[in-house]
Amino acid sequence: MKFSMNTLICNPGASWGARIALIALGLALTGSFCFVEGMFYANRKATVRMANDGCFLAWSGLTALNDATNRRLATLLDWEMDSSGSKLAEMSLRFPSLIERGNYNLLIRVRNYRKRYGRGAETNSNLDPAEVDAKIAKAIAYLESIHNTNQWLPYKTEFDDIILKSKSAR
């Protein structure tokens, strides 16, 4: 049998088959698009989480490290805080809806740490320190302009809640 448009019009079985095939194709394309979009959303959320965790650990390590003999460790933590802070600031500018109070407060902590202590003698060759500081300042200003940061208690994170609960249990 030769296939033509006349076959689709005159033969009800072929007409229904073509309709079902077009609907299945439309559903497959819609499903694929939704899957890819969901995957990108999950990746963005995971990137924010990883940048936040890396930056928090580096900031905590540098804050706790008061020993000049561990200069190598301090340099590594310094580099990690720069790269994670830069990534967190970048994600804050690109996807502000994913940024929460803890992320904002961490950017404030990194900015204040840099103002108070500066950087070590060795800087990361991949990142320009002035560019990192500018990106963090820009992200903080942008978050303050779009979010009501007055409701976000300063320097309060979920880690602070854990510390407060452990102290009150004693």
Could you characterize what this model shows?
The protein has 170 residues and is mostly helical. The protein has one domain. The protein has 6 helices and no strands. Helix 2 runs parallel beside helix 4. The mean pLDDT is 78.
- Classify the beta-strand content into a percent band: under 5%
Helix content: over 70%
> Rough shape?
elongated
Unreliable residue runs? none
**Major sheet description:** none
Overall mean confidence score, pLDDT: 78
What is the H-and-E element order?
HHHHHH
Q: In terms of structural class, how would the helical and strand content be classed?
A: mainly alpha
Number of domains: 1
Rg calculated over all Cα atoms: 26 Å
Number of strands: 0
| Cα end-to-end separation | 86 Å
The number of helical runs is: 6
How would you summarize this macromolecular structure in one to three sentences?
With 170 residues, this protein is an all-alpha fold.
Properties at a glance:
mainly alpha; 170 residues; 0% strand; 6 helices; single chain; elongated
Set down the secondary structure blueprint:
Elements: H1 5-10, H2 12-64, H3 71-94, H4 101-117, H5 129-146, H6 158-169
